[in-house]
Design goal:
There is one protein chain. The chain has 231 residues and is an all-alpha fold. The protein folds into two domains: 1-81, no CATH class; 102-231, no CATH class. The chain contains eleven helices and two strands; from the N terminus they run αααααααααβαβα. The chain has helices at 5-9, 12-33, 38-61, 63-68, 70-80, 83-86, 91-117, 119-124, 126-157, 180-184, 200-230; strands spanning 163-164, 193-194. A two-stranded antiparallel ribbon has the order 1-2.
């Protein structure tokens, strides 16, 4: 069934309608339920403004693509809605949402640094500059999402089976190898420990396999998405 032309022409707004309120909801949650230090609140609000601006720019630059392929706009919209139940502390969605919130801040910082480092390219070719920025941002987002999914799988399959830790927020990150530092984090006087006869070497091998899945998934998704952007 073909969508009416008026609906198709404005379908790109659906992606914005999902992403920006989801970001606002996550930012509000961070400022309310996390330490209320002014620096933390400022960081959360700056992240919201930066990411929202990037979403708006990307949506406007690819407005025709979102209109021509309604499935993309719909996927972004419904994907954004995942963050609402994520804050209800359902196991998988909670791990997913918390990872996106915390590790996403690091992704955003690296992305903004790359934007600044690539500024000289803009003086030679603005189209090349924006194309590079768009592709860097795309891969960063896909790696963030694949890392969040694999992190949730890690917490379900590895945590409390091969080890336990006192702070589970950043046990798995695809670009920071698992190490003794995870077990040494303290909560009061308690620290983590290995379980079931597992050694640190075993966990590092498991981390490598999980990280390989995260990077490979992001790379495959990027190849597919890059073809759509080039269309």
């Amino acid at each position: 069934m073909r969508l009416p032309e008026a609906m198709r022409a404005n379908l790109w707004r659906l992606a914005l309608a999902g992403v920006i309120p989801a970001l606002g909801f996550l930012t509000y949650f961070w400022t309310q339920d996390r330490p209320t230090a002014p620096l933390i609140i400022a960081l959360a609000l700056v992240c919201f403004v930066d990411v929202s601006s990037l979403v708006i720019v990307l949506a406007r630059r690819r407005r025709q693509l979102l209109c021509d392929r309604p499935s993309i706009a719909l996927a972004i919209f419904f994907g954004s809605l995942l963050f609402v139940p994520a804050l209800w502390q359902l196991d998988f969605l909670w791990s997913f949402g918390l990872y996106v919130l915390l590790v996403g801040s690091f992704h955003l910082l690296v992305f903004l640094l790359l934007v600044l480092l690539l500024t000289p390219v803009a003086f030679r070719s603005s189209s090349l500059y924006f194309s590079l920025i768009e592709r860097l941002g795309l891969f960063s987002v896909l790696l963030l999402l694949s890392g969040a999914i694999v992190n949730a799988a890690w917490m379900g399959l590895v945590y409390n089976r091969l080890y336990f830790s006192q702070d589970t927020v950043l046990d798995f990150i695809p670009f920071i190898p698992f190490g003794q530092w995870v077990l040494d984090v303290k909560w009061g006087d308690e620290t983590g420990a290995l379980l079931g006869g597992a050694s640190l070497w075993h966990l590092q091998v498991v981390w490598f396999l999980f990280a390989l899945v995260a990077w490979s998934s992001a790379a495959l998704a990027y190849r597919r998405a890059a073809r759509l952007l080039a269309a």
